[in-house]
Design goal:
A seven-stranded parallel barrel has the order 1-2-3-4-5-6-9, surrounded by five helices. Helix 2 crosses helix 3. The chain is an alpha/beta fold.
Length: 276
């Protein structure tokens, strides 16, 4: 791996709540996972966040969620698959308007919170994410974890799944994220996060909370993006340390979605026209 993206969750406020200025963090990343209004975000925040991201050349990604403002999108909601497809399209479309006004566009999709975790094993909700992406723009990269139901659905549908690693979250022996309520869920030491980031980039592996070496990259590829959550204590310092560590290893940072990052199985799939 010689290049990858660093992404973070931004725009996660509502009305008077939430950070007013995320500029320091946006200065460190190459991709912004913008809350689209269902777990956080409102029209003012969406527009402001898109403008701040575009001004820095940071890629704008739609961070789609269950309709769960009260729970910040961290609660599973058993919404029918067809309804979830429409709710995801609604969110992507809302963000696209503000991204275009800022001179950019939605350039990738990533699920948030409970939806991200559920789609790793929930067939219906994984299928809903993939269907929403293919209906909107089949060529949009989809950030997710390899060897999950979502990844498998994306590959079969001819989408562009990009393998994502989390430098500030603990991993289970199965290569999934430790629940936030469990011990070892968060990594807040910048030096440790930096070491993890370089290891993820170079070998596609991480040490689980039980001490096991776990592969988080696809079998035939590399990790394509690293995430630092904006609400992790010290997120700016963590991201700066990650960038420095990657640079020391000769790894550059870029926006998500370069063709070289797409698994061969996906490249072999015929592309379709963008459907609006």
């Amino acid at each position: 791996m010689t290049a990858l993206a660093i992404n973070t969750d931004v725009g996660e406020g509502f009305g008077v709540w939430g950070p007013a200025d995320e500029g320091d963090l946006l200065d460190q990343v190459t991709a912004a996972n913008v809350a689209c209004g269902f777990h956080a975000g409102d029209p003012d925040i969406l527009r402001r966040t898109c403008e701040a991201s575009a001004a820095r050349g940071v890629a704008i990604g739609a961070q789609v969620s269950y309709r769960d403002l009260a729970g910040f999108g961290r609660r599973f909601i058993d919404v029918p698959t067809a309804t979830l497809v429409n709710e995801l399209l609604y969110q992507i479309g809302a963000l696209e308007v503000f991204a275009r006004l800022a001179g950019s566009r939605v350039s990738y999709v990533k699920a948030h919170g409970a939806l991200y975790n559920a789609a790793a094993h929930h067939t219906g909700h994984a299928a809903a994410i993939v269907e929403a992406v293919t209906l909107y723009d089949r060529e949009l990269p989809l950030l997710c974890q390899p060897r999950t139901v979502l990844w498998e659905h994306a590959v079969r549908a001819g989408c562009r799944p990009l393998a994502e690693g989390f430098v500030d979250r603990g991993y289970t022996d199965e290569g999934l994220l430790v629940p936030r309520s469990a011990p070892g869920a968060l990594v807040t030491d910048p030096a440790e996060a930096a070491r993890r980031a370089l290891r993820m980039a170079e070998s596609g592996t991480v040490t689980s909370v039980s001490g096991r070496t776990v592969r988080i990259a696809p079998d035939d590829g590399d990790v394509s993006a690293l995430c630092v959550h904006s609400d992790t204590p010290g997120a700016v310092a963590i991201t700066a340390a990650v960038r420095a560590s990657l640079s020391s290893g000769g790894i550059t940072v870029s926006t998500p979605g370069a063709l070289s990052e797409v698994p061969p199985a996906v490249l072999a799939t015929e592309r379709s026209e963008v459907r609006r």
